[in-house]
Amino acid sequence: MVTKGNAFDPNCPTRTILDRIGDKWTVLVVLSLRSGPLRFTELRDGIGRVAPKVLTQTLRRMERDGLITREVYPEIPPRVVYTLTPMGASLIEPISVITDWAETHVPAITRAQQRYDEPA
Amino acid sequence: MVTKGNAFDPNCPTRTILDRIGDKWTVLVVLSLRSGPLRFTELRDGIGRVAPKVLTQTLRRMERDGLITREVYPEIPPRVVYTLTPMGASLIEPISVITDWAETHVPAITRAQQRYDEPA
DNA sequence: CCTCGACGGTATCTATTGGTAACTGGCTAC
DNA sequence: GTAGCCAGTTACCAATAGATACCGTCGAGG
């Protein structure tokens, strides 16, 4: 009943990572940084409507997890640059497997939902 | 700045699917049903502590998405059996790509977190 | 007749999270 | 002087996740 030994353990670290992947913004940050470092506002503008508070939270968590680095240039006006670490970059592959699956199955899922909702 | 044309669109269906993947329980239900259909209580007991309400929500959503089927046998006591659809089963592959990545990088992430938390 | 337990859930409440709107500080340009 | 830029922070609110308790139906046991 267990995948690789611990997927069903509530304290399983793998689950924590799944939470990150599932996090709406983390994935978008990774994809945004694919092609190079970006500043805070560049990320904010590139990703759709994201509240600065939420973006900050996401970035701090990703920095803590070692997925990105945060470099502060104490200039005026301030400049903060976010860069994918090698580990962060290695996430692109798994993410695209998921998004490929998603894009392949979107039509089927939409159809299933319509069938489910119809009788109501 | 866009992955495959729409990953950054808030209404993008791919994002909806990512939310499902990221959902703590959906993944565990898929993995639980890998080896065959299960009843509600079997799922509840197999997956760690999950509130019945939350499990019900998860299962309904997955049924709506066409990932599982729900068969009700109006016996006494009632019997409800959940089964992976082919589409649901096809999720196992992408999921294991993610969990493989996660398990590979758990040590590095843990180390990164410790380094981040230490100075405080 | 009365209670008990199995099953597959609801009902109700609280805690956590996601999100909005407004504000900060230092400096520069108008 | 005041308006704006950057990179956030703070105060606040709404939606969601989750824990706990309860429900109805039925047969078994006393």
UniProtKB/TrEMBL annotation, chains A, B:
CDD domains: HTH_ARSR. It comes from the Bacteria. One of its GO terms (molecular function) is DNA binding. Gene3D superfamilies: Winged helix-like DNA-binding domain superfamily/Winged helix DNA-binding domain (1.10.10.10). It holds the Pfam family HxlR. Signal peptide: none annotated. The keyword Transcription regulation applies. This is Transcriptional regulator. Keywords: DNA-binding, Transcription, Transcription regulation. It comes from Kribbella soli. Residues 12-110 form the HTH hxlR-type domain.
